[in-house]
Amino acid sequence: LDAPARTAAADLTLRRGAGRVLLDNWVGTSTVPSRTLYPHQWSWDSAFIAIGLRHLSARRAQRELESLLGAQWGDGRVPHIVFNSAVPNGAYFPSPDFWRSSTAGAGVGAPVSPETSGIVQPPVHALAAWLVHRADPAESRRRGFLPRVYPRLVAWHRYLLDRRDLGGGGLAAIVHPWEPGMDNSPCWDAPLARVTPAAPGSYRRADLDHGHPADRPTDLDYGRYVRLAVDYRDAGYDDRAAAHPFRLEDPCMNALLIASELALAEIARCVGGDADAHEAQAAKLTDALVTRLWDDEAGLFRARDLVDDAFVPARSVAGLVPLLAPGLPETVVDRLVSTLEGPAFHADSTALVPSYDLTGPAFDPTRYWRGPAWFNTAWLIERGLRTHGRHVHADRIRAAFLDTAGASGFAEYVDPTTGAARGARSFSWTAALALDLLN
Ligand code: 9WN
User: Residues in domain Mannosylglycerate hydrolase MGH1-like glycoside hydrolase (predicted)?
Assistant: First the structure.
């Protein structure tokens, strides 16, 4: 099927709307994901935002990444949230007084300021830095952008490859459901069932001030998220000391690490680094990804639970994101494309990619990462399809993305069967990635 044609007028309206969202959500040195729900700086959001922002202002896009990397910890981790001290404590939960990074994380090099969370998110940053550089190489050189960010990005990847190789197989592990950026994915149901939830009265969910309860994770999920975060904090955020009762290898996280290692190779060529070493690392990661996470029977990558060394049963969009890796065997690419076109991930009505198997037992079209279609994963899959020359399919996803992003008011996510908006509106990465696809 060919993608439906979009008109120049529709593109112009979308471009203006997307630009407006990014201008409105800019707070001086970074962009909030949403003015209401997420009033601080988020790690992978900032990377996606920079990828769109580069088309409006390369300088701003550089600052977006620099401000995030400015909050990097001594052990190399890039925190998943960098808190804005001007925002009232109760505006988002968990807040700085929960994470206590500057004190609890001091042993592993958390900065004295700003306050941050103690966990991480997927490493889209080197890819973003390279794309930002390419948007305006002269401005990038003038500001010394690449030489400034390169050592930080290298340290960030080293953290993931060393401290987070909890399975010993060469992949980076996640230790909290907030880390893969897909908080309540059914992939985490079984591993989370082992976690005793924190007492309901011990914290207050600020997200429900803005988000509809049916669109957000449940209280039971939150109790478990809180328990895992408190225990990590109480172990000083030290990966050598923490028990990590929740530890998994996630395919999306590792696919992004591969794409970012390849971007680091490009950056290394500009700054006199060792490009070959980054390419070799990407090849090694690709092998490990296929060896450890490819499920040939299911036709997609799966998360591996390191507690029982087994695949989790749920099939999620994270298992399709490895299309981004250029070094995948062709047979794997063919299978991934078939899965993408099959009944589990192709919603005929909208051509959007759901976050979880449409035919799966946990499918819920409105609840967050349990079914809704998200724009960042669509952008990654679109890019992955192009990486492997599957342009017709990529065109279809691009068209569905652009139509739905505009019609939904740049929603955080949408019902994959109807395209109806869910979650926050004027959501930054939806606007940023729309802008990127328009360029
Ligand atoms: C927890 C900011 C973030 C995204 C995540 C998304 C959501 C936070 C939340 O919002 O997570 O980090 O409060 O639910 O799941 O991918 O980075 O947009």
Answer: 38-430
Residues whose CB is less than 8 angstroms from the CB of residue 396 and which lie 6 or more positions away in sequence, other chains included: 1, 2, 3, 351
CB of 177 within 6 A of ligand 1: the answer is: no
Find the range with the poorest average confidence among 66-70, 88-92, 116-120, 329-333: 88-92
The catalytic position among 221, 231, 261, 412 is 412
Q: Where are the domains of the chain?
A: 16-438
Indicate the pLDDT class of residue 120, thresholds 50, 70 and 90.
very high
Which is it for strands 310-311 and 304-305: parallel, antiparallel or unpaired?
A: antiparallel
Predicted TM-score of the model (pTM): 0.98
Ligand 1 atom closest to residue 181's alpha carbon, by position in its atom list? 16
Residue from 35, 44, 68, 178 to probe ligand 1 pocket by mutation (most atoms less than 8 Å from CB) = 178
Name the nearest CA neighbour of 378 among 313, 324, 312.
324
Give helix 43-53 / helix 8-25 axis angle, nearest 10°. 130
The catalytic residue among 45, 115, 136, 183 is 183
Look at strands 294-295 and 310-311 and give their pairing.
unpaired
AA identity, residue 423 = G
Tokens at 224, concatenated: 């478990």
Ligand 1 in contact with 94 (CB < 6 A)? no
412 is catalytic: yes
Provide the CATH number for the domain formed by 16-438 in this structure.
Answer: 1.50.10.10
Residue 200 has pLDDT above 90, yes or no: no
Establish whether residue 92 lines the binding site of ligand 1, counting it when its CB lies within 6 angstroms of any ligand atom.
no
Yes or no: say if 129 and 84 are a contact pair by the CB < 8 Å rule: no
Q: Which uninterrupted H or E stretch holds 305?
A: strand 304-305
Q: What distance lies between CA 8 and its chain's CA centroid?
A: 30
> Three-state DSSP class for 17?
helix
Sequence-separated (6 or more) residues with CB below 8 Å from residue 193: none
Q: Which residue's C-alpha comes closest to atom 5 of ligand 1?
A: 181
Quote the mean pLDDT of the chain: 97
Cβ of 363 closer than 6 Å to ligand 1, yes or no, is: no
The ipTM (two decimal places) reads 0.99
Q: Is the pLDDT of residue 35 over 80?
A: yes
